[in-house]
Amino acid sequence: MSLAIEKDVAKYSSVQKAAEKKKMVCYYGSWAVYRPGNGKFDVENIDPFICTHIVYGFAGLGSDNMIKPLDPYNDLYENWGKGAFLRFTGLKKKNPELKALIAIGGWNEGSEKYSLMASDPAKRAIFVNSVVNFLITYNFDGFDFDWEYPGNRGGAIADKAYDIPAVASALDQIHLMAYDYHGSWETYTGLNAPLYANPRVESGSNLLLNVNWTVNYWISNGAPASKIILGMGLYGRGFTLASPTQNGFYAYAPQPITAGPYTRESGTWGYNEICEKFKADPSWTVVRDSSYLTPYAFKSSQWIGYDDQQSLTIKAQYASSMNLGGAMVWSIETDDFRGLCHNVPFILIKTIYESMNGPIVTPDTTTSTLSTTTKAPTSTTPATTTSTTTTTTPRTATTTTTPVTTTTTKSTSSPSTSSTTTQGTTICGPTSSITTTKSPSIYTTLPPITTTAGAPPPNTLCKSEGLNSDPNDCGIFYTCINNGQGGWTIYTQRCANGTAFSEALNTCTYPYQVLGCENYTG
């Protein structure tokens, strides 16, 4: 779990206007400064106007239970170092509304020492005091506790569950790491961050490994939606297929994808590596599944699941439709930050931000070039003084089998037909549920939407935002997204044969579990 706390409440009283916008939290992996060629990314490469919060990764925990720098040469000015901490917080001079946080932990730090510290009141006091001094010394505004993960990797058994109401009450923001659902630790292909489940190919606990289930789990267990910041990965996880002809979901893939030129880690490619690869070699095939709403691509034995402009637009609109507090990305240095693929630096972060908040405004009042994204509903949550990151892990999720009722409510009254409805990427039935294109399609965005102004009224398909059942067919349901222009973007989906859509469970299940569909045969 990752927690972040801001140190100065009054400091931000003059920027309350920012509360009306969704938060855009950008993590920075400071080791990217050591990457070769076009992958090298230093503090000065950060655009301070495309994020509302920037988070420096990482500091660590010392044997004395005090926070410590993990790379003193890069992090500090002492001993002729590079002083990245102070350069990072110095970005606030360019944008005074920017908040800069320090993250402690991360995967490489492990879990056991954090569990030992947290279980001892005396050690906790030492830790807390050291953090406060650290924030003051380096001018950080907040603290992100990226403990990966309580109860795992040597952590105490007592840490195995989150007390979600207690956690939520102590935090300003909960950053959900809604990615890493599948990866090369498995021996079969799967998407890094599917938005929804796919009952056509999944069953059992695998139906829980998706963004929508995670978000609804936290909300239904007591987390305020306005505090949840939806995590989105600016990278993909990939595999080497055992057989190039078996290249769909859950295909046998005993080895990770080969390492990319910048991240240099097998199994993972940054989006900048993905888009540069596709641009240089158009023989890659991109596949978009109508259930997952995130793409994957393959060429020969190489297979990678990732997010792009189209899928991140949908996720940003989903975050707005669920009244979440905003979006978070891991991490800024794997976006197309040089604009080599799209001629627009930071194309993914800008896409997310503008899908939630409208055009990005810089000091000279110019706006971003991404004019095709639509403004999502804005949050009315007041500005908060602490920021928190809470994580989930696919390994934990697979042990949970009890369905969780979502907080998305839907009207049961007869909807009226509306002329403002627009049809988005509409796919009906399992035989047409996957669209396959060559890799240049990665550069396309969602079709433009033209509707009348005003709040979108209910219609025959969309009673409210989120998932809606079909009034006449138990096996069909719709993802309805407020397009910000008085209408709906609608994605049509069909359950697997023999299953029906349940609004209570927010997924497809056995017909006998769905009121009114008990005799449905599909």
UniProtKB/TrEMBL annotation:
Q: Where is the GH18 domain?
A: 22-359
Q: Where is this region: Disordered?
A: 364-430
Q: Top enzyme class of this protein?
A: hydrolase
Q: In which domain of life is the source organism classified?
A: Eukaryota
Q: Where does it sit, as one GO cellular component term?
A: extracellular region
Q: Which InterPro entries match?
A: Chitin-bd_dom, Chitin-bd_dom_sf, Chitinase_II/V-like_cat, Chitinase_insertion_sf, GH, Glyco_hydro18_cat, Glyco_hydro_18_chit_AS, Glycosyl_Hydrlase_18
Q: What is its EC number?
A: 3.2.1.14
Query: What reaction is this protein's catalytic activity?
Result: Random endo-hydrolysis of N-acetyl-beta-D-glucosaminide (1->4)-beta-linkages in chitin and chitodextrins
This protein's UniProt keywords: Carbohydrate metabolism, Chitin degradation, Chitin-binding, Disulfide bond, Glycosidase, Hydrolase, Polysaccharide degradation, Signal
Q: Which residues cross the membrane?
A: none
Q: Which GO terms describe its molecular function?
A: chitin binding; chitinase activity; endochitinase activity
Q: Which GO terms fall under biological process for this protein?
A: chitin catabolic process; polysaccharide catabolic process
Q: Where is the Chitin-binding type-2 domain?
A: 459-519
Note the CDD domains from the entry: GH18_chitolectin_chitotriosidase (cd02872)
By sequence similarity, the record places it as follows: Belongs to the glycosyl hydrolase 18 family. Chitinase class II subfamily.
Recorded hits in PANTHER family, A to Z, give: CHITINASE (PTHR11177), CHITINASE 4-RELATED (PTHR11177:SF360)
Q: What is this protein called?
A: chitinase
Q: What organism does the UniProt record list as the source?
A: Daphnia pulex
